[in-house]
Amino acid sequence: MSAAADRVRALSFWRGPVDPKPLGGGITNSNFVVEDGPRKYVVRLGADIPLHNVMRFNERAASVAAEAAGVSPALRHFEPGLVVIDFIEGRTFTDADVRANLPRVAELVKRSHREVTRHIRGPALGFWTFHVLRNYLSALAERRHRLAADLPRLAAVTERLEAALGPTEIVFGHNDLLPANFIDDGRRLWLIDWDYGGFNTPLFDLGNLASNNEFDHAQREALLSLYYERAPDDALRLRFQAMFVSSLLRESLWSMISELESQIDFDYRAYTATNLARFERGLADFEAMDR
To answer: What pTM was computed for the model?
Structure first.
């Protein structure tokens, strides 16, 4: 961590000497809070991670578009492997906060889909969920992950989920709607951390939001009604459930890859186990709906 702090300290962006303070919670990047005179910033360090579809040129484009759309704080400095963004004074959400503020959260996600998609410029990645899943499955098989015997079944599930989604509209999605990526400054909500931003079906962000924040049945129904401004029918429920399950599978496979590749101090094995258990429960619900 000292080498990372030294890199942050040495940035030419600062107006005077700074003392970077580690900011906990990240499981993809190393993060610091920096006070520079009266201004306060978050500095995020992380290299390209092609295996996770994380490319920093894309994060930069997404962050600039999200700022222009009014949903994210300003990006102030970028260089390979490092971004500096404004620090938002506010409360970082928990999953309970997301559930308790569902109308506000749903409105922010919908506005992000509409406006970030309009503001994105230059080269930008796709984040097609099923490509991501197939890529993870292939990489895990090549690396002979400890759970490799189950990969063929998960590959078959991936194909079934993609078929259930069917044709879809495309937006520039966030694709990582963990509760800590929502901040309430007392007046409005902000959506941060665009590492995984990319063109995708909006139903993935909705399923991802619901799966990452443990929505119950009623909250999932409410989310769909808020986003689509109509009561969901059975066809929409099935497509949503397919993406809810896809989100849990993606999080599980992401964690399995991270067990093998990540240098961040985090219990990825336990995270894998938790997400796989939730995936199996979600898959059982999907299968009951898809009879």
So the answer is: 0.94
